[in-house]
Fold this sequence. Notes:
This protein is α/β, with parallel strands linked by helices and about 475 residues long. It is built from 20 helices and eight strands.
Amino acid sequence: MNAQSDIGLIGLAVMGENLALNIESKGFPISVFNRTTSKVDDFMNGRAKGKKFFGAHTLPEFVGSLKRPRKIIMQVKAGKAVDELIEHLLPLLENGDILIDGGNSHFPDTIRRTQYVESKGMLYIGTGVSGGEEGALKGPSMMPGGSPAAWPHVKTIFQAICAKTPEGEPCCDWVGENGAGHFVKMVHNGIEYGDMQMICETYDLMKRGLGMTNQEMHDVFAEWNKGELDSYLIEITRDVLAYKDENGAEVVDLILDAAGQKGTGKWTVVAALDDGMPLTLIGEAVFARCLSAVKEERVAAAQEIKPKVKKFTGDKAKFVDDLRAALYASKIVSYAQGYQLMRAAAKTYKWNLNYGGIALMWRGGCIIRSVFLGDIKKAFVRKPDLVNLLLDKFFKKAVSSRQAGWRRVVVKAAQLGIPTPCLSSALAYFDGYRSDRLPANLLQGLRDYFGAHTYERVDKPRGQAFHTNWTGRGGTTTSQTYTA
C-alpha cells in the first residue's frame, strides 16, 4: 500500500487514543493499531471518524502505511509488553526507523532497549508523557531521550502536540541519551508524590487540627492558588474539597484513606539510594502511602493505642498563613532534592541534562505544573552549574523568610499529634544541609569500633584512613585491608 501517515501509534487505551487525536488535530496524518482489533474499529467509527486516521488490523499493514523513516509510538503497558512489541516490530522495520516508548517505563529498561534497537540498525526514543488523559488530548509535557539521531525526525511533531508555556514555549525538548527522558519523567513523578503528600498534610492540619470545614479549606486553597503556590495540584485540591455528589454529600469525606501507587515514586527513591542522594521528602511520601494502605492495621492500632488529637489554641488565621509558608518552603526542598538526584544520575550515566530546560518542560501540561517552575528556570539561567536550589539567591531568601512559620507548623503538628512526615523531613533536610558539622563523626567512631571501618580526621587531608584499637584487643587490621 502507499505510505500515507506521518507517524503511527500502537495501543488505543485512554492515553494512546487521546494522544493520537492530539497528533491528528495538529495536522499530522496518523496510523493506529491495537492488539484487540475491535478497538481499532470502534475508534475509527467513533472519535476518529472523518479525520486523517488509518486504522490497521495487522502489524504489517500498520507498518506499511507509514512514511519513512517510520515513526512508531508504543503506548502499551510498561514492562514485558514493550519488549514483546519491539520483537514483533523489528523484523518489519528498516534501518533508520524509529520506535518510541511513550509509557511509564523504568529508565534502566529504556537504556537496555535503546542499545538493543540501535544494534539492529533502528533508532529508539523513550519519552515521558505527563498530564493524564486531558494532557494527552490537549497538550502534555513530554520528556524525550534515547537515540540523539532520532530527535530531528520527531521534533516538529512532538513540539506541535505538547503543552506550551504562557510565553508560547513548547514544554518538550530533547533530554539526553538512552534512558534520560524516562529518568526525568520518573523524578517528575517522585516530586508529584511529594507535592501531593505535603498538600494532604496541610489539609490534615486544617481539618483535624483547626477543625475547618471543607468549604473553609476550599476557600483557603482557592486563595493560595492566586499567589506563589499557583499550581495544578493546588487548583484541583480546591475543586476536590468543594465537590458534592447528587445527594449533596461532600465526596472527599466518603473516600477511603488508603492510597494506591504504581511504582514510579518507589523507583525514584531506589534510584536515590543507588546514587547516595538524600531524597528524604519523596521517600517519606512513598512510605506515607504504604502506611495508609495498611488501613485495617491502623484501625486496630487505634483501638489499642488510643489516638488523641489535641485541640488547637491560638490564632487560626495566623496558623493558616504559617501552613502556606511551610508548604512553599517544603516544596522548594522537594525540588532541590529532585534536582540533586538528576545531577547525580547525569554523572553516573554520562547524560548532559539541561536543568533549566527541564523546568521549562514542566511549566505546562504536566501534573506538577506551577508558576514556581519559572523561578527554577531563572535559577539555572543565572547559574547553569548550580549545585543546589537552596543556594540560589531567590530560593535562599524564599526559604529563609519562611523559616519561622515552617518551624511553628512542625512543632504544632507534633504537639497536636498529627503526622507531617514530608513537612517535617523537609525541615530536617534544610537544617542538615546547612550544617557545617553533623554527628557523623560519632557514627564513624562507632563503625570503626565494631567493624574496623576506619575514619577520616579533621586535622588531616581528606582521603586518609585511620583506625583506633578501641578495646586494646583489635589489632591493626581494618575492613579495608582484610581479605577473607
